[in-house]
Write a structure and sequence with these properties.
single chain; about 240 residues; 5 strands; elongated
């Protein structure tokens, strides 16, 4: 019962983390920068993995999509790939977790369900690692440009999507790890009674052979005197 409760808790944590990671992919505010000019004008610049925008004081946003994937910076392409991989791995982890948990009635025997649940936990852990790598890479680029005195272009700060992605990654890793460790050690198979019977019969045969050899060893040596007498023929036997 406790094992089933641990699996349900792990599934809730991992699925919640996967939902948070998936929500960061289309989120707008990956990096934000505010420019305060005069009393009247205030502009907010923000960007994500797909576009860059500016919002004025009236709330009107003007966005520009990235023109070409091949013309993008390398870190944006890497973050896109890692986030898409995290979403896909979390999806498959959710499906396999539903099949492999003990509270569901699909998945086969306990041994096969344990293997499926372990595979689901590994998918969640990989999903969290991909997501935390993408968010950390994006944040490293922002901080390196912000603290670089030679960088003269627009400087940004960390957006809300990065913190949501980090939180979702931690939940995915925790849920996947708990799901892997909540699996009982069902691979240990109990020894069948036939093995004990076979071992007993083998020991009985071995003891019988040892006893037989011991009794044969105690048998007195045969007497060959009569045989020698039988084989001794007289010269007149063939006459």
């Amino acid at each position: 019962m406790a094992n089933m409760a641990n699996q349900i808790l792990a599934f809730v944590l991992a699925t919640s983390g996967w939902v948070l990671v998936s929500s960061t992919l289309p989120t707008d505010y990956w990096k934000v920068s505010s420019l305060d000019g005069t009393v009247i004008t205030t502009a907010t610049y923000w960007s994500n993995l797909w576009k860059t925008c500016v919002t004025d004081s009236t709330g009107v946003s003007n966005c520009k999509d990235f023109p070409s994937m091949l013309a993008l910076d390398g870190y944006i392409q890497a973050c896109r790939g890692l986030m898409i991989a995290a979403v896909c791995l979390g999806f498959f982890g959710t499906v396999f977790a539903l099949v492999g948990m003990k509270c569901t009635k699909i998945g086969g025997t306990d041994g096969s369900k344990a293997k499926i649940a372990c595979f689901a936990g590994a998918n969640f852990i990989l999903s969290g690692l991909c997501s935390v790598s993408a968010c950390s890479l994006y944040a490293h680029r922002i901080t390196s440009e912000f603290f670089d005195p030679l960088f003269v272009a627009q400087k940004y700060e960390l957006g809300a999507a990065l913190f949501i992605g980090w939180a979702g990654s931690v939940l995915c890793i925790l849920g996947g790890t708990l799901l892997c460790f909540s699996i009982p050690c069902s691979s240990r198979k109990a020894r069948s009674p036939g093995a004990y019977r076979g071992a007993a019969s083998h020991s009985h045969v071995s003891s019988y052979q040892r006893g037989q050899s011991r009794s044969m060893g105690q048998r007195p040596p045969p007497d060959y005197t009569n045989a020698s007498r039988v084989q001794h023929f007289d010269k007149n036997a063939y006459v």
